[in-house]
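Design request, tokens follow.
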């Protein structure tokens, strides 16, 4: 027994390392430009004196930044290493929970490990048209919340429902939207576990469904839901079709609906084969998916509910895709891979190699593992590091409204990595405006002020300084005449406006 536990532990450590190596690690990337900035602001309130609303307002819904700040202060671990530690812990917990769930649903050990191997490789799998992956290549509260939700699912399968409820509380405090999806799935799973499978389905179309429908008006939010949307905010939504379900492409709809059909099919097949627990689990995923798909179509299809768009109800698919990867891998191990070493080798090489190649193509200008203290060849990251170490904390920068999409930048957030304030950008700050409409007018004014950035001359930079107080800029090298430049590499210059 001790040897078996040791072998299981070693395999889980190995798959965690493989998952981390395949997905890569990019602190400050995309959403981490918001979350890492908020953590650093908690640790040093003197940072970001000019632009804090672009991350603080949205952070009111989570205790992630407060929790990470407390962890860093309590342990003395630098924030860069603390983020790496929690990223590894989140990945490891996700995989451990997948193994525990697979063990409950499948008797064959090869099926269990094939499921874990598939999830480990597929953590960066895009989730239909939601602009999400199953997990992020940086520490995100969604990663931690996903780990807690899977722990709760494992406890429900073990008959420990109160333990599951306790695990969902911290998930909600870290990421309310993700936790709401997790609570919903745990409800459906609990219902599937309580009753025989087919009577539960029959009753769902009757009394229970009616009860849910009748309760919705009592919990539906009022007021702000029906208020007139800000026209700038509405344009922000139009520029982000992943928020608008009825503008999805056909293949994105297929990516949403096909998994639900597959879980319905798995429920039917597993029930006929006498695999009751697997059938109940598949039914829970199917019912959860159908419910949330219908809910999303109502929320995103009725014009008067447009303010609910920011809740991004289609993100329910993140859990569906995770379970699809897990159960799909388990079934592959059971019926295809079996005990063949050659098939296993080909399987592992194919899924890990393909996902690794995709990640390298997406972030080709950056190191695949951006580990703390490791030198970087990325010109933008070199620039951010120099700024962090050599400019005053109250410096106010402009980089151009679309700097995140610049060649070689790879969507690394300036605030998070340079630790300085910046004039609003059109891409990530625009996504924040989609969640926080009150920032729309400020955001539009700052973005418009940077129109034509590539053609800016000294007078344009002086205008930004006079209008907003921007006294530093990041421009291409060689810089425009008249700026007082303090540093440069082969691509970028860091300059002051006189």
């Amino acid at each position: 027994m001790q040897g078996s536990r040791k072998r299981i532990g070693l395999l889980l450590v190995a798959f965690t390392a493989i998952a981390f190596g395949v997905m890569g690690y990019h602190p400050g990337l995309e959403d981490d430009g918001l979350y890492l900035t908020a953590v650093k602001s908690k640790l040093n309130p003197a940072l970001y004196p000019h632009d804090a609303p672009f991350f603080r307002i949205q952070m009111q819904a989570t205790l992630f930044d407060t929790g990470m700040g407390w962890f860093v202060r309590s342990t003395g671990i630098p924030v860069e290493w603390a983020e790496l530690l929690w990223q590894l812990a989140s990945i490891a917990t996700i995989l451990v929970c997948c193994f525990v769930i697979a063990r409950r649903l499948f008797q064959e050990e090869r099926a269990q490990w094939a499921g874990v191997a598939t999830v480990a490789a597929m953590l960066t799998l895009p989730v239909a048209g939601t602009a999400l992956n199953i997990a992020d290549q940086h520490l995100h509260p969604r990663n931690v919340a996903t780990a807690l939700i899977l722990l709760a699912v494992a406890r429900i399968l073990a008959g420990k429902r109160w333990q599951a409820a306790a695990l969902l509380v911290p998930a909600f405090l870290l990421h309310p939207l993700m936790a709401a999806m997790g609570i919903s799935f745990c409800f459906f799973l609990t219902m599937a576990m309580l009753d025989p499978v087919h009577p539960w389905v029959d009753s769902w179309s009757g009394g229970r469904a009616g009860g849910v429908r009748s309760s919705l008006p009592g919990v539906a939010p009022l007021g702000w839901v029906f208020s007139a949307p800000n026209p700038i905010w509405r344009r922000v939504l139009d520029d982000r079709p992943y928020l608008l379900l009825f503008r999805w492409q056909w293949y994105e709809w297929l990516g949403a609906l096909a998994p639900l059909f597959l879980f319905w099919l798995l429920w039917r097949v597993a029930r006929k084969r006498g695999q009751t627990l697997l059938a109940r689990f598949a039914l829970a995923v199917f019912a959860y998916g159908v419910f949330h798909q219908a809910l999303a179509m109502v929320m995103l299809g009725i014009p008067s509910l447009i303010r609910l768009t920011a809740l991004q109800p289609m993100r329910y698919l993140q859990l569906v895709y995770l379970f699809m990867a897990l159960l799909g891998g388990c079934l592959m191990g059971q019926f295809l891979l079996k005990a063949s070493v050659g098939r296993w080798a080909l399987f592992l090489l194919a899924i890990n190699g393909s996902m690794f190649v995709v990640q390298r193509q997406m972030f080709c200008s950056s190191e695949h593992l951006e580990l703390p203290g490791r030198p970087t060849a990325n010109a933008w990251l070199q620039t951010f590091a120099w700024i962090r170490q050599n400019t005053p904390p109250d410096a106010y920068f402009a980089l151009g409204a679309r700097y995140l999409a610049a060649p070689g930048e790879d969507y690394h957030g300036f605030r998070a990595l340079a630790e300085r304030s910046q004039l609003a950008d059109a891409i990530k700050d625009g996504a924040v405006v989609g969640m926080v409409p009150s920032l729309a007018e400020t955001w539009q004014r700052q973005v418009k002020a940077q129109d034509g950035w590539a053609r800016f001359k000294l007078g344009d930079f002086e205008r930004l300084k006079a209008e907003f107080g921007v006294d530093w800029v990041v421009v291409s090298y060689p810089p425009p005449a008249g700026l007082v430049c303090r540093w440069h590499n082969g691509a970028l210059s860091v300059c002051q406006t006189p």
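Comment from the thread starter after seeing the answer: thanks! DSSP finds 21 helices and five strands in the chain.
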